[in-house]
Amino acid sequence: MNKEYILKKNEEIEKVVKSGKKSVSNFFIIYNKENNSISNLYCVSVSKKIGKAHVRNKIKRRIKDILMKNKMDLSKKYVIIIRKEALNATYDELKETLIKQIKGEK
């Protein structure tokens, strides 16, 4: 994922979580908020409760790969929190759920 699509500042992430819309599925909790930019901004978060660093990094790489391969220009900021059930899901299940959940929030 390119750096231009990453939401890093803690203040911005908190604004999205506090005042954004919330969407929940088996694998993800997604908060979104309107963005003044042309492209989407993403923050992918995984709790330490889910597993060791290599497990958390693997699932984050999968999510970022899905987001980059399926460019969705909705001009929003997203905070994606990954749930424990996502570890047992296949790549295709994650892809289907994530895209459906993001596009359903229009």
Describe the structure.
The chain is α+β, with helices and mostly antiparallel strands and 106 residues long. It has a single domain, classed as Ribosomal Protein S5, domain 2 (2-Layer Sandwich). It is 38% helix and 23% strand. The protein has three helices and four strands; from the N terminus they run αβββαβα. The chain has helices spanning 10-19, 53-69, 91-103, and strands at residues 21-24, 28-34, 41-46, 76-82. It has a four-stranded mixed beta sheet with strand order 1-2-4-3, with helices on both faces. β1 (21-24) and β2 form a beta hairpin. The protein is globular. The mean pLDDT is 90.
Task: Report mean pLDDT, rounded to a whole number.
Answer: 90
Tally of separate helices: 3
Tertiary shape: globular
What ranges have pLDDT less than 50 throughout 5 or more consecutive residues?
none
* Main pleated-sheet profile: 4 strands, mixed
* H-E string: HEEEHEH
CATH architect. name = 2-Layer Sandwich
Tell me the name of the CATH class: Alpha Beta
User: What fraction strand?
Assistant: 15-25%
- Give helix % range: 25-40%
Number of strands: 4
> Over all CA atoms, what is the radius of gyration?
13 Å
What distinguishing features does this structure have?
106 residues; Ribosomal Protein S5, domain 2; alpha+beta; four-stranded mixed β-sheet; 4 strands; globular
Short description:
The protein is of the alpha+beta class and 106 residues long. It is 38% helix and 23% strand.
